[in-house]
Specification:
138 residues; alpha+beta; Nuclear Transport Factor 2, Chain: A; 6 helices
Length: 138
């Protein structure tokens, strides 16, 4: 009986896969600019400019000074990047954009960062970042 249930589940997944694949689209080019411009601002030490790329939700959570401390303390490779490139992008069915960036910090360490962007007042804003050590696999 378990085997039959597993077969039915597998069959449903196979049938649903084309519909799910059609819902995932590449991110619009405009959504790729905020993370790159924010990284440039961080490199210049311009946290005022970097803060403008944060979503309203992030700005409600962190004032400008706390934002700077959070980035410097939690994301040193982002705060002082030497290089960055976008290696993946998705426009999710809910309208959010997810960008994967490979970032090399001035400390010599590389990370893979997943950025979530939200469209607010006609502009893409960074709504969160999750970082992990770079796996080296693309």
């Amino acid at each position: 009986m378990k085997a039959f249930g597993a077969f039915i589940l597998l069959a449903l997944l196979v049938l649903a896969a084309p519909a799910l694949a059609q819902q995932v689209k590449p991110a619009p080019k405009e959504a790729m600019e905020p993370p790159i411009k924010q990284l440039e601002a961080f490199r210049r030490g311009d946290f005022d400019a970097a803060y403008t790329f944060a979503s309203a939700e992030i700005r409600e959570q962190f004032d400008r000074e706390t934002f700077e401390l959070m980035v410097k303390g939690g994301y040193p490779e982002i705060a002082r990047s030497a290089s960055a490139s976008i290696v993946g992008s998705v426009l999710a069915p809910n309208g959010l954009v997810y960008l994967t960036l490979k970032i090399r910090g001035s400390n010599g360490r590389s990370i893979e960062a997943l950025y979530e962007l939200v469209l607010q007042n006609g502009q893409w804003k960074i709504n969160g970042v999750t970082a992990k050590p770079d796996s080296g696999v693309i």
